[in-house]
């Protein structure tokens, strides 16, 4: 048994020690990450910022603290999602990982996310945050892959359909 912390959920689970759900392989495919300020501040509380040497942009209208050891990879931005993606594209960045509930909601609402990976954890929560909040219209998804873990987790991947 291993204790897992996911956002504000603390679980004791039968996750195999060292199993990363394909995270390291996925992270190798990513060129840059865009995080919301709240997510960035939560991630900083972990022992290590686990994004290796990837470029990280933190969306914020407030001033944030960037530790000295992260100054080469982490920057803050007040730009719109469209402008950030344009700047990244101009720099040759192709695969961006969007992290954080409000940030994902804003990129989804603007039609800027093309693929979703959702991991189902066998835990029913009585109350809590909606993962995608309020979005202006329904979003049609096409299933692309499912990965089943013997301890009960299921990771689903979807392509977002464009009209």
Biggest beta sheet summary = 4 strands, parallel
Tally of individual helices:
4
CATH fold-level label = Dihydrofolate Reductase, subunit A
Instruction: Return the CATH class.
Output: Alpha Beta
Which structural category do the helix and sheet elements fall into?
Answer: alpha/beta
- Using the 3D structure, state the CATH architecture: 3-Layer(aba) Sandwich
Helical residues, percent: 10-25%
Instruction: Note the run of SSEs as H and E.
Output: EEHEHEEHEHEEE
Low-confidence stretches: 1-9
Q: Beta-strand level of the residues, as a percent range?
A: 25-35%
Taken from the alpha-carbon principal axes, the silhouette is globular
Distance from first to last alpha carbon: 45 Å
Widest sheet: strand ordering: 5-4-3-6
Mean pLDDT: 82
Computed Rg: 16 Å
How many beta-strand runs? 9
Whole-number count of domains: 1
The CATH H-level homologous superfamily = Dihydrofolate Reductase, subunit A
GO biological process, one term: riboflavin biosynthetic process
Organism: Candidatus Nitrosocosmicus arcticus
InterPro entries: DHFR-like_dom_sf (IPR024072), RibDG_C (IPR002734), Riboflavin_Biosynth_HTPR (IPR050765)
Protein name: Bifunctional deaminase-reductase domain protein
């Amino acid at each position: 048994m291993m204790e897992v912390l996911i956002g504000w959920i603390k679980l004791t689970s039968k996750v195999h020690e060292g199993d990363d759900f394909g995270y390291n392989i996925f992270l190798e495919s990513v060129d840059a990450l865009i995080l919301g300020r709240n997510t960035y501040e939560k991630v900083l509380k972990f022992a290590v910022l686990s994004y290796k040497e990837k470029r990280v942009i933190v969306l914020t209208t407030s001033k944030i603290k960037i530790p000295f050891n992260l100054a080469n990879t982490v920057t803050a931005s007040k730009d719109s999602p469209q402008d950030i993606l344009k700047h990244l594209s101009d720099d040759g960045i192709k695969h961006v990982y969007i992290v954080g509930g409000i940030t994902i909601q804003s990129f989804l609402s603007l039609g800027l996310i093309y693929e979703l990976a959702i991991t189902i954890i066998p835990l029913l929560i009585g109350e809590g945050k909606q993962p995608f909040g309020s979005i202006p219209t329904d979003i049609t998804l096409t299933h692309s892959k499912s990965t089943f873990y013997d301890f009960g987790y299921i990771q689903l991947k979807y392509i977002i359909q464009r009209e």
